[in-house]
Amino acid sequence: MSSAVDKLLTILDLEPLEHNLFRGRSPDDGWQRVFGGQVIGQALVAASRTVDPEREAHSLHGYFMRPGDPSVPIIYEVDRIRDGRSFCTRRVVAIQHGKAIFTMAASYHKKEPGLEHQIDMPDVPMPEDLPNERELVEAFMAKAPDNIKAYFRKERPIELRPVNMEHYTSNKKFKPIQNIWVKVNGDLPDDPAIHRCALAYLSDMTLLDTSLFVHGRSVFNKDVAPASLDHAMWFHSDFRADEWLLYSQDSPSTSGARGFNRGSLYTREGKLIASAVQEGLIRIIDKKD
C-alpha cells in the first residue's frame, strides 16, 4: 500500500468522541483550506458508523458553508433522524471553530430486488491505453504552469487518467464534457462502506472543472476563484474504488458565477455504479483589483 493511500485511510478513520460525535483530521499538505472531497468522505464515514452494516448508503446531499481550516480537527455530529424497516436517514454537521462548515443528509437502504436499467458508458479508450500521470507530466506539461506540474507530480491517493489533457495545457475552448479514469492508488479493505466513502472523497475531484471547459479556463488559472457549493451522490450498485472507474462528466449550464456539473461513474465493464451532481462557485477575479 502506498503512503498516500495509507494516509487516505487514516483520514477516513474518524475518532469516536461520544455517542454520535466524531473527530476527523486533515493531512498536512500545505493547502490553505480543506479539500471538499475529504469533508464529504469523512461526513459519510461518521453517518455510516451509526448505521447497521446491512444497510448501505444509496444517496447523500451536502452543502459547503465555510472553507475548512486544515490546521485544526473537524468535529462531525450525527443526528439519527429515522431508522425504518428498509431505509434509515442521517444528518451530519461538520463543525470548526464553533461554526458549521458543511452539512449533509444521507440515506441508507437494505438491499432488495427490483427493476433495473442504465444508460450506456461512453465509448472512450481504456485506462491502459492512456498515459499514466508520470507520462502525462513528461509528455504534455513541458510548457504547463508550475502549479499544474506540481499537482500531477505529487504522490496522491487517487490516480487520474484523463482521456484529454489539452484543457490543462492550453486556453482553447472545448465542449463542457470530460472523461477521466479514476481509482484509489492502492488496495482498500473489502468493507463496502470504505469504498463508498473513498468514492465520495474522489467524486469532488475534476467535477467543478468541467464547467470551465467551454470558457477556456481551468481551476488552476489564477483569475478563477473556484469552490464547491453543494454536492450530491447516488450509489446504484456495489463496486471497488481501488479498481478503474470511468468518471464521465458534463456541465449543462454556467450562470451567476456558478457552474453546474454532472458525473456518471462506470466500471471498466460498463456498469453504472454511481452518479454525482455539483454546483460550484467559478468567480472570475479582476486582476486590476
Characterization of the model:
The chain is α+β, with helices and mostly antiparallel strands. It has one domain: Porin (Beta Barrel). The protein has six helices and twelve strands. A hairpin with a 3-residue loop joins strand 4 (74-83) and strand 5 (87-96). The chain is globular, with a radius of gyration of 19 Å. The relative contact order is 0.15. The mean pLDDT is 90.
Indicate the proportion of strand residues.
35-45%
Q: What coarse outline follows from CA principal-axis ratios?
A: globular
Task: Look up the CATH topology.
Answer: Porin
- pLDDT averaged over residues: 90
Largest sheet: 12 strands, antiparallel
- Tell me roughly what share of residues is in helical segments: 10-25%
Count of helices? 6
CATH architecture: Beta Barrel
DSSP summary, beta strand count: 12
User: Can you identify the CATH superfamily?
Assistant: Acyl-CoA thioesterase, double hotdog domain
Quick one: CATH class? Mainly Beta
Q: How many individual domains?
A: 1
Distance separating the two termini: 46 Å
- Provide the gyration radius in Å: 19 Å
Protein name: Acyl-CoA thioesterase 2
InterPro entries: Acyl-CoA_hotdog, Acyl_CoA_thio, HotDog_dom_sf, TesB_ACOT8-like_N, TesB_C
Enzyme class: hydrolase
Catalytic activity: a fatty acyl-CoA + H2O = a fatty acid + CoA + H(+)
